[in-house]
Write a structure and sequence with these properties.
The relative contact order is 0.17. A hairpin with a 4-residue loop joins strand 7 (about 140-155) and strand 8. This protein has 3 helices and 8 strands. The N and C termini lie far apart (about 100 Å). Helix 2 packs across helix 3 (about 175-205). Helix content is about 35%, strand content about 35%. It has one domain (about 5-205): Rossmann fold.
Length: about 210
C-alpha cells in the first residue's frame, strides 16, 4: 500500500469517528406535562350540602409566544429564551384547559364538567372563558401566570363576572421540571380564584 492510499484510509477513518462521536454527543430531548392539583380533604369536591352545577371550561386562548413545543423562559422583561431540548409533551392549548377542568372538579361539586364546546345535548349552568396573557418564568426564581377570565350564565346567556388574576409561584430548583411544577401551581391558584367566584355566585343566588 502506497503512502497516498494510507493517508486516504486514515482520513476516512478519522472522519467517520468524528461523525459518530458528534451524533453520540447530541443531548436527548426531554418532555414535560402540567399536573393537576392534588386532592385532599380540604380541597375535595363540595360537601354533600352544596349544590352541584354543570360547568363548561373554554375557550382558553393562549398567547402566540408560548404556543410552541419549546418551553419558554424569561431572561428579562423584554427577552425570552426557547429551550432547545426541553419541550412540552402536548400543546399548551390542550393541556391548560384540561388541567383547569380537573382542578375545578376537585374544588367544586360540578356535575358534569366538560371542555367547551360540549359534546351532545348537555345542559350547562356556567361557562368559564380564559385568556392567558402570560405563562412563563425564570429557572430558579419564579413562574408567572397572568390571565383574564369571565364566568357566563349559559342559561341566561349573560356575563356574570369578569376578572384578571396575576399569580406567581416559586421555582424550587434550577431545572425545567421545577419550572413546570411551579407553573402547575399557578394554574391551581387560578382554579381557586375561579372556584371561589362560582361559589360566591351560587351563594348570592340562594339568598
Amino acid at each position: 500500500m502506497d503512502r497516498l492510499s494510507s493517508r486516504l484510509i486514515g482520513f476516512t477513518v478519522i472522519s467517520v469517528l468524528l461523525i459518530v462521536g458528534g451524533c453520540g454527543g447530541t443531548p436527548a430531548s426531554r418532555f414535560y406535562v402540567l399536573s393537576p392539583m392534588p386532592s385532599s380533604e380540604d380541597t375535595m369536591r363540595a360537601e354533600m350540602s352544596e349544590s352541584c352545577v354543570a360547568i363548561s371550561v373554554g375557550p382558553v386562548i393562549m398567547p402566540d409566544y408560548i404556543d410552541r413545543p419549546q418551553i419558554v423562559t424569561r431572561i428579562s422583561e423584554n427577552r425570552l429564551r426557547l429551550a432547545e431540548f426541553d419541550q412540552w409533551a402536548e400543546p399548551l392549548g390542550d393541556s391548560f384547559p384540561r388541567i383547569l377542568m380537573e382542578n375545578l372538579s376537585t374544588l367544586l361539586c360540578a356535575e358534569p364538567i366538560t371542555l367547551y364546546p360540549s359534546r351532545g345535548p348537555i345542559s350547562i349552568d356556567y361557562r368559564v372563558e380564559v385568556e392567558v396573557i402570560r405563562l412563563d418564568g425564570r429557572l430558579g426564581e419564579q413562574a408567572s401566570l397572568v390571565a383574564r377570565w369571565i364566568i357566563l350564565d349559559e342559561r341566561e346567556t349573560k356575563v356574570l363576572l369578569t376578572r384578571k388574576s396575576n399569580l406567581n409561584a416559586p421555582v424550587q430548583g434550577g431545572d425545567y421540571e421545577a419550572l413546570v411544577s411551579a407553573q402547575s401551581q399557578t394554574i391551581a391558584a387560578l382554579s381557586r380564584d375561579i372556584a371561589e367566584a362560582i361559589k360566591a355566585i351560587l351563594n348570592q343566588k340562594s339568598k
